[in-house]
Amino acid sequence: xxxxxxxxxxxxxxxxxxxxxxxxxxxxxxxxxxxxxxxxxxxxxxxxxxxxxxxxxxxxxxxxxxxxxxxxxxxxxxxxxxxxxxxxxxxxxxxxxxxxxxxxxxxxxxxxxxxxxxxxxxxxxxxxxxxxxxxxxxxxxxxxxxxxxxxxxxxxxxxxxxxx
Length: 164
Hints:
- With about 160 residues, the chain is an alpha/beta fold.
- Helices cover about 25% and strands about 20% of the residues.
- It is built from five helices and seven strands, in the order ααβββαβαββαβ.
- Strand 3, helix 3 and strand 4 (about 85-90) form a beta-alpha-beta unit.
- The chain is globular, with a radius of gyration of 15 Å.
- It starts with a helix and ends in a 5-residue tail after the last strand.
């Protein structure tokens, strides 16, 4: 069994560490997949949606680190994200997955994060380096600018998808 398969279903409560937000150098109107400000006070967002996010209205510039879940669990999150079209989404960089092939071309830019993010667990401690890498997908110009800043701050490799 691959290392990433060992983690499936274990928990979806892994929080993005502060250094990611520091590298982005921006703030958000909403964190749309949030555990709550009390658990992640370092996330620079004005509003935190903790429940029923997909059924609620999103406004402004958003941060989204959705539950990675099982197969195709990201699809409804990414559908809403790209319909909203103003924010940054953190997703696994599963470039051969059908959902990746569908949504990556919709991104304004993509930052492949390096080194791999050591997410913060519910106990407040960093987890081990995951087997799977992650990336940040930008939707909109402000998000593209933030990913450019993050690249300049050493967070990873930036690419701009093109369609033929």
